[in-house]
Structures are given as C-alpha cells and as structure tokens.
Design brief:
single chain, mainly alpha, 3 strands
Length: about 160
Amino acid sequence: MTTDETLNTLLVRIFKDIMEIEGRCLVTDEFVDLTYNDFHIIEAIGTAEPKSMSTVAKLMKVTTGTLTKAMDGLTEKGYVIRERSKQDKRVVWVYLTDKGKAAYKHHEEFHWRMIDHVKDGLGDQEITVLIYSLAKLVDFFQQVYEPENEQEEGK
C-alpha cells in the first residue's frame, strides 16, 4: 500500500469511527436519551455564560430553525433552559441545567481520554507535527466548505 493509500484509509476510518464509536461511547445508561448531535449542541452551549441561539447555531453551522427543533428536545429532556432576553425580545438565551452540565462533562472526559491516548508515547516534536497535520486537515475542509457558503449568501 502506498503512503497516499495508507493516509486515505486511515482518514476514512477515523471519520467513520468518530461518528460511530464516539456516539456509542457517549450514549450510556445515564445519557440514553441523548443523541450524538445532542452532545455536540450541549458542547456548543458550554458551561460558562449563557449563549444566544444564533451564536450556538453559528457554532454548529446550522440555521436557528434547525437548532430550535433540536433545542426543543433538549429542553423537554431537562438538559437546557431557554430564556427570552428582557432587553431584546428577539434574542433567546440558552444555558445548561445541572443535568446538561453532567452530559457536557461526560463528553469532555471522552475527548480528554482520546487526546491522552493519541499523545501517549509521542515526543514534543511528534506532537507538534501531529498538530500541524491536523491543522492542515481542518484548513482543507474550511477551503472546501467556505466557497459554498459564500456562493449561497450571494444568492
């Protein structure tokens, strides 16, 4: 197998595994009512200050309408609270309940375990190369994705 074929095989497998395995690891008995996507909405909301729905939608790269549907479920399940702004009634603030913060922590712990495993046995120089390589991958996806957004906004 050539280097390019090996890279392709590994990248395809990583993307597939992230979606499938992370989803299975996150949805435990405690969080059986959450989906993979729910965890990422909870992550986007975060545990700091409340965020506006439009801010969370931008972070998730979805419309506020799409986010509203998902947020309805998270609110009904007790993970998120929504409050309309007193200063500007068009703005809706969202923040995590204690149950939502527990789900956030559960997701965060999975990511820290993943990072620790990837870094295990690597030297500082190898970690630097890994970070550079992953940044190039992110850059590739941004280049592929961004032109589509600019064309749609121009319509």
